[in-house]
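Consider the following input, taken from an annotated entry for Saccharopine dehydrogenase-like C-terminal domain-containing protein (Sorghum bicolor).
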Amino acid sequence: MERVEAELHEPAAKTGSLIVSACGFDSVPAELGFLFHSRQWEPPSALVSVEAYVYLQSSKRIVGNIGTYESAVLGVANAGQLQALRRSRPRPPKPNIPGPPPPKGSLIEGQNPLGMWAMKLPSADTVVVKRTLSTLTEHPEGLPGAEETPEYAEHRKKFWSSVKPAHFGVKIASRSLMMLVRFIFTGIFIGLFGNFSFGRSLLLKYPEFFSAGMFRRAGPTEEEVKSASFKMWFVGHGYSNVDRSLELGRSKPDKEVITKVSGPEVGYITTPIVLVQCALVLLSQRANLPKGGVYTPGTVFGPTDLQQRLQENGLSFEVNVTRTMS
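Applying the prediction step yields:
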């Protein structure tokens, strides 16, 4: 995604071609979920950090698509090229976030507001959301549409003025510690073997073995797909009154908001729903969208009715908790 942006953004901007990456489960639920969460923090409150917890559930067995597994293997193989690309490009602008950044936690998290085990997930969602926030830092009112109506321009500005930037990360959550152990061992195998060709050939030839059964070449059965679903909680911490807190020297957040995005199985049901609805918005509302360039889904679709469309097609967005912390 980042290479496409580096190589094609300027040509696309010149020709008026709009390229939107990550229009599947990665990373539309995370993008719209973050924007939905951020807009719950009305002044004088201020958001500081958001942790997204991805929880996959099924009444049968959770089996991932082989494409996800292969992407992880090839991601490790090309990690050096990605780092070189990032070093070669200007640093993206960082948003102004009040207060100190949250402390780095342990590898496995046993205590959180959800009452689940969790661990940090090296997800594209984190990168994509941060890219959206960088764009918002450069363009606080969002990107103007190619031929947007005055009404939409006013709506766009109002929408982005209600979005607050925050430190963002993604974790995989589970009620079972053993599930996280399986993720860890899969990550260790991919990290060890993904850096050389023979190791990659083994990883790709025997995915079920190296992933402890979480991925298989045949993919999930129809029954496994129907029985699966996801929940993605967004746990945000910040200040109930940011000016007063900083004036009194209080660095510890005193407010917590938890929102949730949920929907059906992620790979074979949610991703097609998201992709089709993104395409329909692009086709029906092209004049209101940015003229051209390579952008994230949040940047392009944030002010549109994409969230409403997803809610009408099986996904839900809801506020679970808003409370003051002692």
